[in-house]
Amino acid sequence: MPQYEWRCHVCESANDAPTETCKQCGFPFKASSNAILAARAAKNPQARAVYPHTPNALERLDIELGSLPPWRQIIAVIGLLTSIVGGILIKWTFSWTGALIGLAALLGGVIVYLAAVHTGKDASSFHVRPVDQNNESS
């Protein structure tokens, strides 16, 4: 039983604290994400349930390297492999010298990868969309 006021996942109407089902549509307070998406789809048959897609590591690598020329792709992959070898050296060596060499390889590989992939790209275009000053509401 909820101890606070809550909004329905399907119809978004407000419900009082002790109620366990929505007073508007009857949807339960606790539900799985699949049940919520199915109920929303049943409510509005034209709307299609959209499941978010998170790219795996290889898809992400293809996104980052796909637009680069081949020579920069090769440099980026060499940087990645160097950083992987550096990480393995840090983990599996039993001496400070080996660990420092591994750390240098790890950091050097990351720097080479970042330089190969991101040099010459506009930094603001990666994750942040520009704000349109004309359509901004106050």
In short:
The chain is mainly alpha-helical and 138 residues long. The protein has helices at residues 33-43, 57-65, 70-92, 96-118, and strands spanning 6-7, 14-15.
Question: Can you put this structure into words, describing what you see?
Answer:
With 138 residues, the protein is mostly helical. 48% of the residues lie in helices and 3% in strands. It has four helices and two strands; from the N terminus they run ββαααα. A two-stranded antiparallel ribbon has the order 1-2. Strand 1 and strand 2 (14-15) form a beta hairpin. The longest helix is centred in the middle third of the chain and has 23 residues, at 70-92. The radius of gyration is 25 Å and the shape is elongated.
Features:
mainly alpha; 2 domains; 48% helix
Layout of secondary structure:
Layout: E1 6-7, E2 14-15, H1 33-43, H2 57-65, H3 70-92, H4 96-118
Antiparallel strand pairs: 1-2
